[in-house]
Design brief:
The protein has 499 residues and is α/β, with parallel strands linked by helices. 25% of the residues lie in helices and 26% in strands. The chain starts with a strand and ends with a strand. The structure holds alpha-L-arabinofuranose. Residues 291-491 form the Alpha-L-arabinofuranosidase C-terminal domain.
Length: 499
């Protein structure tokens, strides 16, 4: 049997996990909003039209922050269209996804929904077709207590108290040629700088996210970050990263190694941030908001056939396989390992659109395979990430050399006296996993949850929603002063210890 070892020392800390690492994303795209979180005619809708079955599932995920309303959508969005009496809201052509946008759901509905699911709202301003003026009005509408035109308009709309949205994205993927109002680095940098300055005049407590590269492999990566931060450094706290992975080539070894690409991407983005920090000779550190990450490829061909100008057509409805859940687990491990620099992360997206939760219009709601690793990380991964030292055999793939068969990360929750180890076995056979713990001598294994399946392509559907689901019959145990386990072939593992 292959062997792997992990050493954990209570004193070797990476950083406290920012709760906002377990965020997600709702865009006006496909059926994310309409027939996803909002469906007034649904038998399980509340009096405001929010689907209660979906609310329950979102609560299970314990999502800490939700980014809204886009995504590519935001670059053509007028926030004013989505507030005020619903019967007066305009139906508009939505150009990013070529749909019809009824604007029945807007900022105020989003804030109400966030309260119902106990999550923090995170919003974006349109820097594609719009700019400083609309942004400052939007901040005034959302966050100013009252006595000014836009704050009083919010009150007239029935929201007396300010929404106090703290985290704001300065546009979305402005480096991408597909983006409405795509800009060069300098064009974006100057607009973001001036917009951020004015937004902070309205509300100095905002936490702003500059739009970073839409992917690591885009040719302008690095140069883009450096230029944008040269201009915006004093106003922003974060720069965004986005990454989506695929398995078009149906190569499990290579697919499961793709979290290494994510790791390198984070390291490179941090280097770009610190390059500007060095040039500016400042103590301020820019953090990463990894505000779009997931697997995305299953639905791309189907989406090409969708007729334009429909309201909430099915778009980006990836049906996730068991192997996708393994990569999502590995990506969560990667994010946790960078807890010192990645302070916000949003699984893109939350419902129906490349999402852990699926719904049927008028029908049920169910958990996709990727629901589980996210739920485990979000519920058990809060606390302090400890530096994992892992020794494991490695393998080479088409794109990656020296891929360890085991990747893992420990999170210590001091308040609850709990230590949780998240681990993935990338190998097609069992692996012995020996864990030496320093500072946790009085902790014992209470649970070993496993997500495993003989069929890599197994999926959950409305008719068979529990086809892929975790069990807690893992064999992790305390033995000879260590924690020992045999990790099942191709498995996601959550080993929980308590004092
Ligand atoms: O999440 C789907 C899309 O992916 C978002 O709208 C965009 O920001 C990214 O390209």
């Amino acid at each position: 049997m292959k062997k792997s070892k992990m050493y954990i020392d209570k004193n070797f800390v990476i950083d406290k996990v920012d709760n906002r690492l377990f965020g997600s994303f709702i865009e006006h795209l496909g059926r994310a909003v309409y027939t996803g979180i909002y469906e007034p005619d649904h038998p399980k809708a509340d009096e405001k039209g929010f689907r209660k079955d979906v609310i329950d599932l979102v609560k299970e995920l314990n999502v800490s922050i939700v980014r809204y309303p886009g995504g590519n959508f935001v670059s053509g969005y007028n926030w004013e269209d989505g507030v005020g009496p619903k019967e007066k809201r305009p139906k508009k052509l939505e150009l990013a996804w070529r749909s019809l946008e009824p604007n029945e759901f807007g900022t105020n509905e989003f804030i109400e929904w966030c309260k119902l699911v106990n999550t923090e709202p995170m919003t974006s301003i349109n820097l594609g077709t719009r700019g400083i003026d609309e942004a400052r009005n939007f901040v005034e509408y959302c966050n100013f207590p009252g006595g000014s035109y836009f704050s009083d308009l919010r009150k007239q709309h029935g929201y007396n108290d300010p929404h106090n949205i703290k985290v704001w994205c300065l546009g979305n993927e402005m480096d991408g040629p597909w983006q409405i109002g795509h800009k060069t680095a300098l064009e974006y940098a100057r607009l973001a700088e001036e917009t951020a300055k004015v937004m902070k005049l309205v509300d100095p407590n905002l936490s702003l996210v500059a739009s970073g590269s839409s992917g690591w492999h885009i040719p302008t990566f690095g140069e883009w970050e450096a230029t944008v931060l040269e201009h915006t450094y004093d106003y922003v706290d974060f720069i965004s990263l986005h990454a989506y992975y695929d398995n078009y080539e149906n190569n499990i070894e290579n697919f499961l190694a793709k979290s290494i690409d994510m790791d390198s991407y984070i390291k490179s983005a941090v280097a770009a941030c610190d390059y500007v920090k060095g040039r500016k000779k400042t103590n301020k550190t820019i953090y990463i908001s990894f505000d779009e990450w997931n697997v995305w490829f299953h639905s791309r061909k189907e989406d090409e056939k969708v007729e334009p100008w429909q309201i909430a057509p099915p778009l980006l409805e990836d049906v996730y396989t068991f192997e996708d859940a393994l990569l999502v687990g590995l990506m969560l491990i990667t994010l946790l390992k960078h807890a010192d620099r990645v302070k916000i992360a949003c699984l893109a997206q939350l419902v129906n659109v490349i999402a852990p939760i699926m719904t049927r219009k008028g029908g049920g709601a169910w958990r996709q395979t990727i629901f589980y690793p996210f739920m485990h990380a979000s519920n058990f991964g809060r606390g302090t990430v400890l530096q994992p030292v892992i020794s494991a055999e490695t393998y080479d793939t088409k794109d990656f050399k020296g891929v360890p068969f085991v990747d893992a990360v420990p999170v210590f929750n001091e308040e609850k006296n709990e230590l949780t180890i998240f681990a993935v076995n990338r190998a097609q056979d069992k692996i012995e996993f020996d864990c030496e713990l320093k500072g946790f001598e009085d902790y014992s294994v209470t649970e070993h949850i496993i997500l495993e399946n003989n069929d890599l392509k197994a999926v959950n559907t409305e008719d068979n929603p529990d086809n892929v689901k975790p069990h807690n019959n893992g064999n992790a145990r305390n033995e000879d002063g260590k924690v020992k386990a045999e990790l099942s072939p191709l498995s996601w593992n959550v080993i929980r210890l308590k004092k």
